[in-house]
Request: fold
Amino acid sequence: MANGDPQDNIAASVAASYDMPIAVSVIEKLSKFPFLQQLGYNGQLNWLQGGFLGLQDFFDEMTTYSSAADILQIAWQLIQKRVPLNLDVQKNLYTTDSMGTVGNAFQQLVGFQQTFAVNPDDLSDSTGSAVVASNLPSS
Amino acid sequence: MAFESIQFKYTPPPTVAAALPTAQAAQPVSLATGASLTNSGSAAASASAAGKLIARLADLLDTNQYLQQIILATSTGLGVEFDPSVDPETARALQTIYSNLPVPTSLTISMYNRMLDAKMTALQIESGLGTGTAYETNPFQNSAVTQINQAIESGLVSSGQSQFQTALLLGPLKGDAVLLNNMTAQLSQYPVIAAPGTPSIAVNNPNQISILGQDVSPALASTLNSSLDSFQSSYASVYQLTAGVGVVAQDVNNVLNQFFLEPPTNLVRMIPMLQALQGFSQAPRLDSIVNGMTGTVFVQLISEAAGMVTMADRFMQTAVQPLKGSTSNIGQMVSQIQAASAMANVVVNGAKQNFVNTTGGLKGCSLAYNSGLPTAPISSSALVPASTFQVPGVGAMTPGLMTLATHLDWANTTVSNRVSVIQESFQKLLNRRTGDMNAQMDIIASTQALNTLTQLAKAVMTYNSSQPAVGATNSVTQTAAVSQILSGMSSTTGTSFVVTNGQMQAVSPTVPAPPSNVQKVLTNGGVNLIVASSSTVQAPTIGAVS
Reply:
């Protein structure tokens, strides 16, 4: 079977796992831009940790510099074991099937800074205007 | 599979009468109050044009929900294959929506149903939020839902099989539900529904206009009823398509007879021809409709237009029309201006009876009238008699009063024209939407026929390749051959075939019985049999029948 081919015998248990209402999330417009910045940074986090601007560059430069004197080499050997750990970045990394390793802000894509959420069933006996009016915070 | 449970209070007979007793019809419900109109104590509300329209909308909404349930019930186990490595964009979207679940390898119809719900919910929330707001629906979620929807729709369209494509009708139906709900909410704002019997003004307050009992105007009621007729007809067609027996399946014996008589080489030619028609014509047309503007954009447009139409209608009834018939001094001045305008449009002795700028309705405002008002600066004499501008009991209209009356007449004409345009546009938008839905059903019905014909032709070829040809020595009779083919065949439309005592029956898909008010809508829309348990098909009568 290829991607997009029709299937007529999908297991009920599989279908049921994904057969759930999707609540629509409402956010503040102002929170979008800072979050996009955060996502931009998080999207590159995996490369930053080992790239030219990251620890790999620091590691190379320090190795070259420390080779100039024995005392520096001894000090650098003690330090370099800790360098690849890159703890601050490591603790914020998150691995997904589809996006690979990214910053953990991607975990919050759906519900970030949510003001309120509307379930489709909420609109079965009401209008969008009424639901919005009852959910929006009073200014 | 965990579809929403389907519950109906009424089990209809196999054949439903053309008209149901009024008592069986669903009670109209007012969205504005959430209370039944007939229980609100106001007979005027339920007897009003707005009340009747709301009742029709409630029945159509029930029919809409029922048809969605039929489509979902007949789509169990259906979906499209999904490979994240081929379509990583959709995989990412799925992970956004189902963040706690693995990326699925099948995109199901039930999943599509949920995505459409989310899409329509977002649409309604955006409409509710309006433009001057600090809030918005989550753009990542919207984008993910759209991405997943497109992946599923693309698979369903390119499947070339009507049993999959029928699920595409969920989109128009859900959009309709938003529209019908919105129209109900707009109609519920009319005073006759929103506040029946409640005085709208303080007693003896001369500065307020009474709109007590204001109802939908006959013109708008006629427009809306006409549009609802179109919805009704479309819904009847959806029912026939999803719950009925296809035209080829009903006539399967004649088709099979001819297929047996046809040289096999011709069948070999026919099959790719039928498939080519599906691929070259039906699939691209269906794709353009599914991805067209009427799906989503029109839902928003029509919702907004519905608000404009009802507001304009109420404005006409509140301000414009009462002034037209006013017998006050100013009302009579307006009438005189209208009389002058009527004279100006009459041709006498080859000359159009226009105003001149010295006596025109806007005399003194401008010397170069370009307002569409009757005026003729090049004329040298007044062709509308000066007596026209005399008001009984008041005398000649002064320039200021003439300007007042002319502007009132001008406003009257302009507003009336604009309201007509708004109503006409609204109806055209609705017609375009139901038109696209009907075109979609035509294509799916054609695909259904193509699927069945191809399936039958292939079955005959398979039979001929494994058995002695019908009519040859030691062959079975054609009836027996047809029986063998049909008894093992299930149509792609959910229709199955049963051969009992030499009689063949095409059995329609099993669907839940419609509630009584839904039956009424379907019957009025043109469906003769609401619950057709089977359609008898005659045994073959031509060819080598023993």
About this structure: Helices of chain A lie at 12-18, 32-48, 55-66, 70-80, 87-90, 128-135. The radius of gyration of chain A is 25 Å.
